[in-house]
């Protein structure tokens, strides 16, 4: 059954199609970034809602290139504006956002080893500081480029690379400690 | 001796590029250098294999680990909200 459009939609089918093609698939990445920016699940969901409303309103002017980067820009600007309204003493500088901010083989032994490795990786990433964890998740789970992560979080691309490198090394060190990785690879 | 020093220097440089290579973020020329080094250096090959396995493990885990995929319920609400903007049916979303 068709829903009643929230915005009293123009009925522009091509715009609606573009919205579903470019915006909806990015919701997981938007929510992940929003959680990092807001530090609150409810605020994060509200922020993503505001973001997709803005994206919907401007979808007809979007040229279809770099959708994720476009959405991250909207998300960040929306976040800055929301906080400026709430706390006018904060966020004079947009950069202040940073401050808050089967291939499985049939061999059971092989499968068990893969599962142990995966569980250890999941346990290790949970111990990362949030800023580091978010960068690792955006790159490894959401397949974001370094530039997209930099844009999403409002940080220099060098900071993205630094956090990613340190985050993965932290994960690797924990795998080494559990004997799941050869110690010879613990240098870098 | 000289070859060992050169190899150590190569390993040091490649070590700095390894994660960028893993993420497809290197320039083509540098990519070739890294690939040539990985063909002959066991130590760096192991290093690359470890990071590659970590990346693969995270990607696989994201499909069935709620703590990694975030709040699926919140995502479902957001998808319904997005559908509501366009009057699109969320059935099956």
Question: What can you see in these coordinates?
Answer:
The complex is a heterodimer of chains A (188) and B (93). With 188 residues, chain A is an all-alpha fold. Chain A folds into 2 domains: 13-99, Orthogonal Bundle (Rna Polymerase Sigma Factor, Chain: A); 103-185, Winged helix-like DNA-binding domain superfamily/Winged helix DNA-binding domain (Arc Repressor Mutant, subunit A, Orthogonal Bundle). Helices cover 64% and strands 0% of the residues of chain A. In chain A, helix 2 packs across helix 3 (41-57) and helix 8 (146-153) crosses helix 9. Chain B is mostly helical. The model of chain B has no long low-confidence stretch (mean pLDDT 80).
Bin the helical content of chain B: over 70%
Which structural class do the helices and strands of chain B define? Answer: mainly alpha
Oligomer kind: heterodimer
Estimate the strand proportion of chain B: under 5%
Overall strand count of chain B: 0
Note poorly predicted spans of chain B. none
Quick description:
The complex is a heterodimer of chains A (188) and B (93). Chain A is an all-alpha fold and 188 residues long. Chain A is built from nine helices and no strands.
Q: What are the defining features of this structure?
A:
heterodimer, A: 188 residues, mainly alpha, Rna Polymerase Sigma Factor, Chain: A, Arc Repressor Mutant, subunit A, 2 domains, 64% helix, elongated, B: 93 residues
Strand-helix topology:
The complex is a heterodimer of chains A (188) and B (93).
Chain A: H1 13-22, H2 27-38, H3 41-57, H4 67-86, H5 97-100, H6 108-125, H7 130-140, H8 146-153, H9 157-177
Chain B: H1 2-22, H2 28-40, H3 42-61, H4 66-69, H5 72-86
Helix pairs in contact in B: 1-2, 1-3, 2-3
């Amino acid at each position: 059954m068709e829903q009643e459009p929230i915005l009293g939609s123009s009925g522009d089918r091509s715009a609606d199609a573009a919205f579903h093609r470019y915006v909806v698939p990015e919701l997981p990445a938007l929510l992940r970034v929003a959680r990092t920016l807001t530090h609150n699940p409810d605020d994060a969901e509200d922020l993503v809602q505001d973001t997709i409303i803005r994206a919907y309103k401007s979808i007809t002017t979007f040229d279809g290139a770099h959708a994720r980067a476009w959405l991250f820009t909207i998300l960040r600007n929306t976040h800055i504006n929301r906080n400026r309204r709430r706390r006018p003493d904060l966020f004079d500088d947009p950069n202040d956002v940073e401050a808050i901010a089967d291939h499985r083989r049939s061999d059971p032994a092989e499968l068990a080893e893969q599962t142990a490795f995966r569980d250890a990786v999941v346990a290790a990433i949970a111990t990362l500081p949030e800023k580091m964890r978010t960068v690792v998740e955006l790159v490894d789970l959401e397949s974001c480029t370094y530039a997209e992560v930099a844009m999403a979080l409002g940080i220099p691309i060098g900071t993205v690379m630094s956090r990613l490198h340190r985050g993965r090394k932290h994960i690797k060190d924990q795998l080494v400690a559990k004997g799941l990785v050869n110690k010879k690879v613990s240098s870098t | 001796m000289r070859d060992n020093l050169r190899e150590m220097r190569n390993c040091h440089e490649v070590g700095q590029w390894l994660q960028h290579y893993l993420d497809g973020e290197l320039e083509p020329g540098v990519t070739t250098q890294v690939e040539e080094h990985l063909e002959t250096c066991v130590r760096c090959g192991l290093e690359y294999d470890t990071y590659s396995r970590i990346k693969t493990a995270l990607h696989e885990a994201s499909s069935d680990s709620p703590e990694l995929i975030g709040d699926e319920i919140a995502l479902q609400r957001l998808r319904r909200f997005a559908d509501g903007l366009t009057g699109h049916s969320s059935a099956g979303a």
